[in-house]
Specification:
135 residues; mainly beta; 1 helix; 41% strand; elongated
Length: 135
């Protein structure tokens, strides 16, 4: 029988995309390494001690998939509202993100660089070229 459980990340294997989950309600039982669900090949591992939801499969208690983190009282979204889409990219909320609402797309990061087959260009270089086209 499938079982959905909530636990805390106790160990992370970044290379394999797996984590171990601690269940405090089960005498601090720790799972074997479980794969983290990737949404459309997106890579974003939770942090140690993050709460995660795990779907254990019917072929054994140790087999399962970490569905991901979730919003709750101790972990509220960094921003909310109808019509808002926000994607965090940093390890902490607000460090780096993309935000879309009311037709406006915003990006926040220390630096933005576009990579192409022929090289790279930064937003600063693009803005500089637009304000000084003859340089």
């Amino acid at each position: 029988m499938n079982e959905t459980r909530v636990g805390r990340v106790s160990k992370i294997n970044y290379e394999n995309g797996t984590i171990e989950v601690l269940y405090t309600d089960r005498d601090n039982e720790v799972t074997t390494e479980l794969p983290v669900l990737n949404f459309g090949n997106e890579y974003h591992m939770p942090k140690i001690d993050d709460m995660v939801m795990v779907m254990h499969l019917s072929n054994g208690c140790e087999m399962g998939v970490v569905l991901g983190t979730f919003w709750c009282g101790g972990n509220p979204p960094p921003e909310s509202g109808e019509g808002l889409y926000r994607k965090e990219y940093g390890s902490e909320p607000g460090e780096a993100y993309a935000r879309f609402k009311n037709g406006i797309m915003e990006f926040k990061a220390d630096s933005v660089v576009f990579k192409t087959k022929s090289g790279t260009v930064s937003i600063r270089e693009i803005v500089s070229h637009l304000t000084h086209p003859l340089d």
